[in-house]
Amino acid sequence: SGLFALALAASGSVERMAAQEKAGGPLRSSDQAALVQKAERIVQLTRQIQTDQQELRDAEARLNQPGSEHTRALVNLQEIEADYQITSRRMAQLKSAKKNQEVAELEKTLTKQKERIRLARDRFVLALSERQILRDQIATLHEKTRKEFEELIRTTGKSDVERVSSLQVSLELDAVQLQ
Q1: What is the pLDDT of residues 76-89, one digit of tens each?
Q2: N or C end: fewer C-beta atoms under 10 angstroms in the chain?
Q3: Whole-prediction pTM value?
């Protein structure tokens, strides 16, 4: 496949094979096996990096989604708290006006609103926890991708970041063609 050939070229293996043949002999089977193993590892790392990068993009999109559960829970909590404040002010006015029957009714309403606030806070805290878990997953994916990229650099024998970056771009193009 194109990935396999690209991986061999990236590691310099093709050049070594050509130099060996020009020097007068084919590569030993153990050398060929090592080259194949190295090429397979390069392909495996490249595919894993691509998969992780896609997961990372998806997770970041979910984190930054405007209509997320976190946002909806926050808006809901703010609305319920605002209603509670309005009811509390109204009750204070009625108390000062000595309207005890209406105050008693509003106390029942306030009790219900307090329970709604508690539930809305629980929902919001849960949404915050889920958001933090997503942030942790993103950080883990960043670290995993960085380590895989470093291993790819070590495996290919490249220390030049531009050459490895061009390899990554080539692999991404090859992956698009495979789909």
Answers
A1: 999 999 999 999 99
A2: C
A3: 0.62
